[in-house]
Every structure is written in structure tokens, then in C-alpha cells.
Design goal:
It is a single chain. It contains 9 helices and 9 strands. The longest helix has 14 residues, at 69-82. The protein starts with a strand and ends in a 5-residue tail after the last helix. It has a single domain, classed as TIM Barrel. An 8-stranded parallel beta barrel has the order 1-2-3-4-5-6-7-9, surrounded by 6 helices. The protein is of the alpha/beta class.
Length: 235
């Protein structure tokens, strides 16, 4: 199973560059989230540009509630210029300050990307939360995204989805190590959390039906890269 490393969008260029260089020793692709939890950070496109410059593939997310139709199209064309591999469209958490924009849903944003032949090199994706009823999950699968990021994984539901789609299914997991344990368990206990010593088993258990896994390691990214590299999990 392929591993993608989530890069937290720091506003410190030197720190970002150091983390990306370190990531490049083990990973060939990174995932860059857009304003996690609604907090303003450096733009995903600026970080993706740095990642691509360093030889990494980059998939970004775009929070549709932050953009008007024009603003979102600008982001998509910017992604093409940067050389972004894929865009995950999601609604996102409410911004900590400012207004919510309701011009487009994630599904409409995906269709917009797919409708422009000039953007055919960019993969479009949606999230797929297994906490919803199966009929709602399959309704989103019918959007025929290039990939789906699967949240709140349920073996039964994921296997049912895999049986009816050719789209790539990518998991998401937050890695827990000693340094970030309290932070992760107090803020993300409801998410898919994996203790680092169980990461290899987690990969084996979910391959198939998942093709890849995004691993997030808030406050512990460099030690997580070191662990993945030391245990030969780089694929």
C-alpha cells in the first residue's frame, strides 16, 4: 500500500522546506490540507509548489466554503500551473473568523474540474465518511471521482464500496506517538487513530480494499518519517 504523508501547512518556509526534504527521503507523495479546523495557514498551492520543486508529488485539499465560484476556479488553475497531482474537494470546518461561502458543494467543484479538458491531468477527489448510511455513501460514489478519501473506516462498508467502483480508495489515519499522544487523543479521538507501533499491521489489514493511506502526524511528523523509514514502510 502506498503511503502519503500529510504536511501541516506551517507559515514558516524554512520549517516547511526541512520537513519536505525529510519526507522526500521516504515518501514520493504528500497531502497538503487546506486550513485545518478552519484556522488560516499558508496556502496549499504555495506549499505544493515547494513540494513539487523538491521532486515530490502533491495532492491538496480545497475547502469549498472558503471560495466563491471565481475564487475556486482560480485555485484549480493555479493547481495546474504548480503541477499538483490531485485535488480533494471538501466542505471543511467553519472558519474561525469570517464568512462561509455557499457558491459550490464539493460535488459541484468536482464536476467543474472534470468539465474542463485542460484540467484532465489533475485527479479530482471527494471524502467518503463511513459514518453515513450505505445508500448515502453510494450516492457520493456515483459522482465517479478519481479518488475517495475514506474516513471513519468500516470494513463492511469499504468493501461494499470497493465492489462497485473503480475509483481509488485512500484511507486516512492520525498517527500517535509518545510526543503527540495527549494532543491527538484529546482532539482527534473520534477520528481514525493508529498508534505508531501498529502502523504496519494497519497497512496489512487494509490492503486491499484501500490502495493508499494518508498518514497525519501532528506535532510529530519528523519522528514519524524516521519510524516509517526505519521499518521499511516506504512504498
Amino acid at each position: 500500500m502506498r503511503l502519503l504523508l500529510e504536511i501541516q501547512p506551517s507559515r514558516n518556509r524554512d520549517k516547511l522546506r526541512r520537513v519536505l526534504v525529510r519526507a522526500g527521503e521516504c515518501f514520493d507523495e504528500v497531502f497538503i490540507p487546506d486550513s485545518p479546523m478552519g484556522y488560516p495557514k499558508a496556502s496549499t498551492l504555495s506549499i505544493a509548489s515547494l513540494a513539487v520543486e523538491l521532486g515530490l508529488k502533491a495532492t491538496i485539499s480545497i475547502r469549498v466554503i472558503d471560495y466563491s465560484w471565481t475564487g475556486l476556479v482560480n485555485q484549480i488553475y493555479g493547481a495546474k500551473i504548480v503541477g499538483v497531482k490531485g485535488i480533494l474537494f471538501l466542505r471543511g470546518d467553519a472558519p474561525v473568523r469570517g464568512s462561509i461561502v455557499n457558491d459550490l458543494t464539493p460535488e459541484q467543484a468536482l464536476r467543474l474540474l472534470k468539465s474542463d479538458a485542460r484540467l484532465k491531468d489533475i485527479e479530482g477527489g471527494l471524502t467518503l465518511s463511513m459514518r453515513f448510511p450505505l445508500d448515502k455513501i453510494l450516492e457520493r460514489v456515483r459522482e465517479n471521482a478519481d479518488f475517495y478519501v475514506v474516513l471513519r473506516k468500516s470494513r463492511e462498508k469499504v468493501e461494499q464500496v470497493a465492489s462497485v467502483t473503480n475509483s481509488k480508495l485512500i484511507g486516512y489515519a492520525i498517527v500517535v506517538i509518545e510526543e503527540n499522544r495527549d494532543f491527538v487523543l484529546s482532539n482527534f479521538a473520534h477520528e481514525d487513530v493508529v498508534f505508531i507501533n501498529e502502523l504496519k499491521r494497519h497497512l496489512e489489514e487494509w490492503s486491499p480494499p484501500l490502495e493508499a493511506l494518508i498518514i497525519s502526524a501532528p506535532r510529530a511528523i519528523e519522528k514519524t518519517v524516521e519510524f516509517v523509514q526505519r521499518n521499511s514502510l516506504c512504498i
